[in-house]
Amino acid sequence: MSFLLILLNVFFVSFTDKPEKSAPALSPRAVEQRAKWHIPTDALDYPVCRMYQDSLRRMGVRIHHTSRWFNGATCEMDSITATRVAALSFVKSVQTTRKNNTSGMYMPHRAKWHTEQNNIQTVTAQAANYTDAQLALYNLTPLHNAGFEGQGILMTVCDGSFYNANTLSCFRDSLELGHFDFTDDEDGFYGQTGTHGTECLSVISGIQNGFYGSATQARYYLMRSEEDETESPKEMDNLVAALEKADSLGVNVFSASLGYAMFDNNEWTLNKNTDLDGKTTRVSLAATIAARKGMLVCIAAGNEGNALWRTISAPADADSILTVGAVGTDSIVGSFSSYGPSSDGRIKPEVCAVGVQTVLIYPDGRLVQSKGTSFATPLLAGLAASLWSALPDENAMQIRERIIRSAHLYAHPDSTNHIGYGIPNAWLAYTMPDPTQDTPSSVTETPAPVIRKILHNGQILIIRNGNAYTVSGLKVQ
Predict the structure, then answer these.
(1) Which residues contact 64 (CB under 8 A, 6 or more apart)?
(2) What is the pTM of this model?
(3) Domains of the chain, earliest start first
């Protein structure tokens, strides 16, 4: 007996138009925010034609997800069906985005060039000082002390693995609004696919004895776009889907510690001299679209600074976002932190945060230190959320401009494109005049309040705004 093996690969199918008249794919929150910041609805906000999708399904095509911004769908099918689909009158193009070695299986190897340079070390310093230094580096504690910790701000952390993020006591259930999975991974969303996303989330939202995140009052969605068994352009389209979903939900700050440049199939590897211009890959274009739609997008620069690749990846090359490099609490840039500029000459990364020996919470509850631009990025995203909660009437581009202009090298950016405009100053970003109306040369920084920690009956208490809180964030009466 013999069997015919049919290979099902993944393709991005682009459609010619959007003939159906339907409502924009936006939540009431998203609509309200668009109106507040005078961002018009356009063709990008309307969903992909349902009739076209149904036609593909009748041909045996499995649709993974669609893209309203690029008017297409990520589909799984065999090569014969792909040829038939390409001939349809409403199909503009069919592009292969992942090749499987057997039906339903991935490539047998992976090339996760952006995998963190993890040197996980359990933290042994005095508990009260665990996170003081990394928040103090960009002067965020005074903003927290003034009561601004991300209240009213909606965030997304997009990654590939959120092991135990739904059970760790350092996270408050009331802040997570839901989760979305755009991958093919079979493990449950909070299953053992890895620890990376949970670690990134912890530096934003975690509260534990001796640890305090950068925006502990912000609410958030978790999204998974990174696939565990492969490195393919399909993952970039997964991230596009995540950005579009976040936009539809009215997310304010999007943090993704992901980047793409080299793939399992060398034919897809990007050209660092031409392709990292923010206009070549769909994922970089999507990050820019998200920014123009009112979202502040924070992307890790990458960890290739001392490797052969050396430079940033996609979507870190996108325009109008914040690409984040890594420094230590001593302000020295990590040698692994990827360099810019973008291939069209823009400064990258724009800013840096603590990504060298970052203190974070491991999924088993331990406080550990690790390194990577992955951890600098959510720290910076938390700064943005806390700042935005203090300035709720400003839009994403104004908040981005404040962060950049507050950075210590703003007047003279790093000529090596290793640290960009430098390390932001959250309190200065808050107290400066509207950056679209003024320049830092006329700004005098307001003296910052000092956070207090006291030991009372054997318990560490944090004093903010004259009120006492436990390290778990509970107000002491």
Answers:
(1) 10, 73, 74, 75, 76, 182, 184, 234
(2) 0.89
(3) 9-98 (3.30.70), 121-442 (3.40.50.200)
